[in-house]
Structure formats: structure tokens, C-alpha cells
Write a structure and sequence with these properties.
single chain, alpha+beta, 2 domains, seven-stranded antiparallel beta sheet, three-stranded antiparallel beta sheet
């Protein structure tokens, strides 16, 4: 046995070195994967109080390891006739309250620390604002004109994460349907918020900024 090891020590040493290298590569991959998970931004768009339906506040939650900077927020109301795009980065006059001097009372743009959230208006108020911009008259959050159908409401939250130079979009879509009582309800299309970082999406964001943020 010892003679065989002595005779083959060269290639045994080579195999041992290769095995050690593979083990180190495996652990390096694990460390890198963990680092990427920590560095990956995670922003959730959700309902604050799900049982309140349309009256639930819309929350933008930062579940990332570092702060995210909310740069631009867009709501898209999809109807049977058109899609209505409404920026909601700036607060409405009737939502500011008495203290309009504070920057936080005038805009939703700014940093959101890790584990914190940014509260928008209720889904009902956001829906009504979008409908008002589109010239749709509502009664009990439903169009007075029965030829118009509200299909969905989609949120686009454009953020910058930590020291990253590139922005990303947190997107979530909610279908608008009527329940048995004839009331309008929200149904999320997906369980989680999707993140968009493609070049095409960034070009779309630049177009929105030119149109709505000037």
C-alpha cells in the first residue's frame, strides 16, 4: 500500500490539489451567492390593511439590506377604453394637511431606510385621482358611464438602491373586479412585486420622466 502511494504520489498530489481547488470554488460560490442576495434590492408594493379593500393604504416597503431612494411613482389605471397614466410622486393639495412647509408633506420622493415603508394614499383615492385625470366620473368608485369598465390598476415605483448607479422599477398590478355585493375589489395579479431592470424598461421610465416630471 505504502509502496503504491510512493509510486503514484505525483498524480495523487495533483488530484488532491484539484479537489482542494474545487472545494474552495464551491465555498466561494456560496459566499458570492449570499453577497448577491444581500446586495439585491427588494421593494414590495402591498396593502396596509387588506381587510379594508379599496380603503387600504398602499404601502411601499423596503426589504433590502440598505436604503432605497424613491425617485418616481406612477399609477396606471387600465380601462376598457384607454390606460390612464398618473404620476403620484408629488402629494395632492388636499392630502398635505396644514403643514405644507415640510418637504415630506409635499413629495414622496426620497430615501426609505431598510425595514421601513412609505405610505401612499388609499387605493380608492389613487383610483379616483386617476379617473379624474382621465375625465371619468365615478360613483362609489365605479364609472357613471356603464360603457366604461375599470380593469386594473398598476403601480410603478422607480428606485435607486444604495450606491448603485442604475435605477430599477418595482411593479405590481391589481385587477379590479366586482364582488357579489356589487362593490369594486382589488385582486393582486401576482403574489410578489416584480423588479424590472431591462434597458427597454429604463427607456420607458425616461419617457415617463420627460412627460410627467417636467
Amino acid at each position: 500500500m505504502f509502496q503504491w502511494l510512493s509510486d503514484n504520489k505525483d498524480w495523487i498530489t495533483t488530484l488532491t490539489n484539484i479537489g482542494t481547488l474545487l472545494v474552495w470554488l464551491f465555498y466561494a460560490q456560496l459566499l458570492y451567492s449570499g453577497y448577491r442576495r444581500q446586495r439585491r434590492p427588494r421593494v414590495l408594493i402591498n396593502r396596509g390593511v387588506g381587510g379594508e379593500g379599496l380603503d387600504s393604504p398602499c404601502l411601499i416597503c423596503n426589504m433590502s439590506e440598505e436604503a432605497v431612494y424613491v425617485y418616481f411613482i406612477l399609477v396606471i389605471l387600465e380601462t376598457s377604453e384607454e390606460s390612464i397614466h398618473v404620476p403620484v410622486t408629488d402629494c395632492e393639495v388636499d392630502a398635505m394637511g396644514d403643514n405644507t412647509s415640510a418637504l415630506s408633506a409635499r413629495t414622496r420622493q426620497g430615501p426609505v431606510e431598510s425595514g421601513k415603508y412609505l405610505e401612499l394614499l388609499s387605493y380608492r383615492l389613487l383610483l379616483e385621482r386617476a379617473a379624474r385625470v382621465g375625465g371619468i366620473e365615478l360613483k362609489n368608485s365605479k364609472p357613471v358611464n356603464t360603457d366604461i369598465e375599470l380593469k386594473a390598476i398598476e403601480f410603478h415605483v422607480v428606485c435607486i438602491y444604495g450606491s448603485d448607479d442604475d435605477a430599477f422599477g418595482a411593479v405590481r398590478r391589481f385587477e379590479l373586479t366586482e364582488n357579489d355585493a356589487g362593490e369594486l375589489t382589488l385582486t393582486p395579479e401576482s403574489i410578489d412585486t416584480t423588479h424590472r431592470t431591462s434597458r427597454r424598461y429604463k427607456q420607458q421610465v425616461r419617457q415617463w420622466l420627460k412627460r410627467y416630471a417636467t
